Amino acid sequence: MPRFYYEDFQEGSVERFGSRVVTREEIISFAAEFDPQPMHLDEAAARRSPLGGLAASGWHSCAIMMRLIADGFILESSCMGSPGIEELKWLQPVRPGDRLAVRRTVLEKRTSKSRPELGFVRFRFDLVNQNGETVMEQTNSIMFGRRASGA
Amino acid sequence: MPRFYYEDFQEGSVERFGSRVVTREEIISFAAEFDPQPMHLDEAAARRSPLGGLAASGWHSCAIMMRLIADGFILESSCMGSPGIEELKWLQPVRPGDRLAVRRTVLEKRTSKSRPELGFVRFRFDLVNQNGETVMEQTNSIMFGRRASGA
Predict the structure, then answer these.
(1) DSSP secondary structure of A1-62
(2) Which residue out of A20, A22, A29, A35 would a mutagenesis test of the B interface target, given it has the greatest number of B Cβ atoms within 10 Å?
(3) Does the reported pTM lie above 0.90?
(4) pLDDT tens figures, B77-95
């Protein structure tokens, strides 16, 4: 049985999840597979790029944040997926050795009229590094099954 | 020297890039690392999920689209990164065996006042499967160096 249902998310609540160090090896490995731009692959080329040094692909940051969120609460929840992302900003480079965490804010929630067994929770997720800088922010809704699943 | 600069993107132009088959093994491998929800990891659990069968993590679809875009034109361009994503919708599940391509539409473009050496090109990217279904759509701007780089 899930621990967190739609009813368990409180509007305005703020929680922090996770702690994950990003290594040079995984930055390069992800980039080689999905985003082989020199600034994500090679230190010398990255120094000449707008990022000024090796930095993770923005999509790698997204994938890392997903894992932090999954381990933080999604895997223990009645999550039924997400329709997409409303907005996502890459604010700061993610560097080798950075330690990342997620700050989750529950913005609002609403039940579904057409599917009474679920509700939408709209979140703001900030990916934060060891210096307290927000490196990425994302707003999106996730669907969760309801505790009193209107069957 | 890059082949594509800011000047080479024509508002309203539509192009198609790539062809990549997504395997069951890579769906599970990506999910195990970044999004270990049962619907992305295990066929039996996935059948009982809202997706009705094994499907790729939405972030895996994003990463695959990035690779198609990179190979399609970004790696031959004066790309200087992206500030983020305006909107992203996951419309259909991506299944094992699906063959994916990207349809790129240039929505609009503008030069940067504060940084005359670059410009912003705003794109719509549709990720399309072998049946012509759009499985994901994304709107975002990418920064490109200008050909007559105001140096």
Answers:
(1) --SB-GGGPPTT-EEEEEEEEPPHHHHHHHHHHH---HHHH-HHHHHTSTTSS----HHHHH
(2) A35
(3) yes
(4) 999 999 999 999 999 999 9
